[in-house]
Amino acid sequence: MPKTRKLSEAKFRSLFENSPYGIFQSSANGDRLLIANPALVRMLGYESSEELARLRLSKLLYTRPSDRSLVIHSIASSGRFEGDLEWKRKDGSLISVHLIAQLVPEIPGGDKLIEGTIEDLTAKRTLEQHLQRVQHLDSIGGLAGGMAHELNNLHMVISSYAEMLLPELQSATQKRKADAILHASRRASTLIHQLLAFSRKQTLTPQVLDTTRALNEITAMLRGTIRENISIDCRCEMEVGNVRVDPLQLQEVLVNLATNAADAMPHGGKLVITAENATLTSDEPVGNQGAKIAAGEYVVIKVSDTGLGMDQATQARVFEPFFTTKPVGEGTGLGLSSTYGIVKQSGGWIKVESKPGQGTTFTIYLPLIENALTSRASSAQHTMSAQRSSAVTVLLVEDEAGLREPVRDYLTKEGYRVLDAANGADALQLLESQSSRIDALITDVIMPQVNGPELARRLKARFPEMKVIFMSGYAEDKLGGPESFRDSVLLKKPFALRALRAKLQELLLSTLTI
Ligand SMILES: Nc1ncnc2c1ncn2[C@@H]1O[C@H](COP(=O)(O)OP(=O)(O)OP(=O)(O)O)[C@@H](O)[C@H]1O
Ligand SMILES: [Mg+2]
Q1: What is the pLDDT of residues 79-121, one digit of tens each?
Q2: Residues 391-420: pLDDT tens digits?
Q3: I want to staple 505 with a disulfide (CB 3.0 to 4.6 A). Which of 85, 287, 384, 432 is the partner?
Q4: Is 35 helix (H, G, I), strand (E, B) or coil?
C-alpha cells in the first residue's frame, strides 16, 4: 500500500476510533451492526464491537417496536432517518439517543448498507427534566408565597381579635366559641408557616450552631416523640463544624424527616442521623434538583430509615407542596416542601435517595461556618413587674389598618401609651407635632418611601435609648440581611399579641443598647 494512502487511512481510523459520537454501519434491514466504533460500544454498555455485532438489534435495542418500524420505513422510502429514540443498554437501562442514518449507495459486488451517527442525549434529557422540576417548584413557590403572605395578614387580624375578645367574654359558651376561633387560627398559622418556608419567604433568625450539639439535642427530643418500635441513632463526628441556621428551623427539618421516616416504618425500624464534614472540590450534582452544589466546605447531615422506600415517580415529586401519598387527613404534603425551602433559604441543598423496600436517605448540605459567634444574653426570664408600662410610649407603624388597630387597642389595654401611623413618612410627620419621647418603635419592615429600618435609624438619632421591634412576614434576604437587625428584634408574622407583649417587655427590661 502506498505510504500516503496508509497515512490517510490512519487518519480516518483515528477519527472513527476517537469520535465522541457513535458511528456505525449496519445491514440494510438495520438488524445487524457490521461496524461500531468504541463510542457506540460504550454508549450501549457492551464489551466489544464483536459482541455488539452478534446481536439482533430488532430484539435487543428498541424499547418500542413501532420506533424501529418508523426508522426502517423512513429509510426505505426516503433513504434517510433523523430523530430521537429511546434504546436499551446491555444492562436493560434506558438511553435517549439522536440517530442520523442513511442508506449508502450500493458498493459494487456488495450488499446495501445503512450507516450513520448516534449522539447520547441521556445526560441532556435528565438535566432538562431536572431543570423543569426546579422551575416547576419555583413557580409554585412564588404562588404559594404570595398566597401565604396575604393569608398571613388576614390570619393576624382574626387571631388578634379573638385573643382580645376572650378575656372580655362572660359566658362559658361564648368563651368556648372564641377559643375555637383561636384554636383554628393556630392550625392556620402552622400551614402559613409551612407555605412561607417552602417559598423561602419566611423570616429566619439564623444563629451559628455547633452541629453535633444541636443534633444531639434534637435527637433527644425526637426520642420522646417518635414511636417506641423505632430506634434512633445519632452518629455525629465530634469534630463536625458549625452551621448558620435558625435553630427552630433545623429542628423543624429534622422533625419532618423523622416523622416521614416513622410513617414509612409502620412495623418499626431504624432511624439513623449522621453528620460529618465534607469538602467538595468540584460542583457536585444534586439528584433531584437539577442543580449542582457549589464546591466548598460543608456539613453533611444524613437522615436514613429502613422503611418502605419510594419509587422514582414519588421521589421526583416529594418536595412539591401538597404532594402526599398518605390517606386524606393524615398528611398535607407540606412537610418536605417546607424542609426544602428552609434548607435552600439557609444556603444549603437537600437530596433524596431511595428504592422501594430498601429505605430512604435524605442528605442535607449546609455551608460550614468556621467561627462560632457568641450568642447574645437573653433577658426573656424578666417580667414587666419591675417597670410600669404606662410610663412607656410606643410608636406603632403598620399600613394594614386591620392589623394596626387590634395591636394598638391591645397595647393600650396593657397600659402603654400608643401613637400609631400607617407608614414611615406619616410617623415622622406625627413626631414633628409631638414632644414626647419614644421608648419603643414597633414597625412593619417593607413600607413605601421610608421603610422600617430607615425609620428606626432616623428615630434612633433622636431617641438613642429607643427599642425596636420589626414585624415582618418576609424572608431575611428581603430585609437586607440579618446584620441590619443586629441590635433589634424581629417578630415573625403571624404572631400572637401575647408574643408581641413578651418581646416588648423583654426589650424594655434588657440592658442591651439598641
Ligand atoms: N422517609 C420516607 N420514606 C418513604 N416515603 C417518604 C419518606 N419521606 C417522604 N416520603 C413520601 O413523600 C411524601 C411527601 O412527604 P411530606 O412530608 O412532604 O408530606 P406528608 O408526610 O405526606 O404530609 P405532612 O408532612 O404534610 O404531614 C409522603 O407522602 C411520602 O409518600
Ligand atoms: Mg411529612
Answers
A1: 999 999 999 999 988 899 999 999 987 666 667 889 999 999 9
A2: 789 999 998 888 898 899 889 888 888 999
A3: 384
A4: strand
Rounded Cα distance between 19 and 24, Å, is 11
Ligand 1 is surrounded, with C-beta below 6 A, by: 256, 260-261, 264, 305, 307-310, 314, 318, 323-326, 331-337, 360
479's enclosing H/E stretch is none
Name the residue of 191, 317, 324, 355 whose CB sits within 8 Å of the most ligand 1 atoms, as the mutation to test its pocket.
324
The C-alpha cell 500500500 sits at: 1
Q: What does the block give as the cell for 456? A: 428606626
Residue 359 to residues 274, 285, 353, 362, 513, Cα–Cα distance (Å) = 16, 22, 9, 10, 52
> Which of these ranges, 164-168, 307-311, 473-477, 490-494, has the smallest mean pLDDT?
473-477
329 alpha carbon to ligand 2 midpoint, in Å?
Answer: 12
Q: Which is more confident, 391 or 337?
A: 337
| 500 has a pLDDT exceeding 50 | yes
Distance separating alpha carbons of residues 428 and 322, to the nearest angstrom: 44
Instruction: Look at residue 478 and tell me whether its pLDDT is greater than 80.
Output: no
CA 214/CA 487 separation, integer angstroms? 25
Pick the CATH number of 3-120 from 3.40.50.2300, 3.40.50.720, 3.30.450.40, 3.30.450.20: 3.30.450.20
In the CATH scheme, what architecture does the domain 384-509 have? 3-Layer(aba) Sandwich (3.40)
Domain spans of the chain, in order of start = 3-120, 126-198, 207-369, 384-509
CATH number of the 126-198 domain: 1.10.287
Pairing of strands 230-236, 349-354: unpaired
Tens digit of each residue's pLDDT (9 = 90 or more) over 26-62: 988 878 898 999 999 999 999 999 998 888 887 788 8
pLDDT level of residue 282 (50, 70, 90 thresholds): confident
**CATH code of domain 207-369:** 3.30.565.10
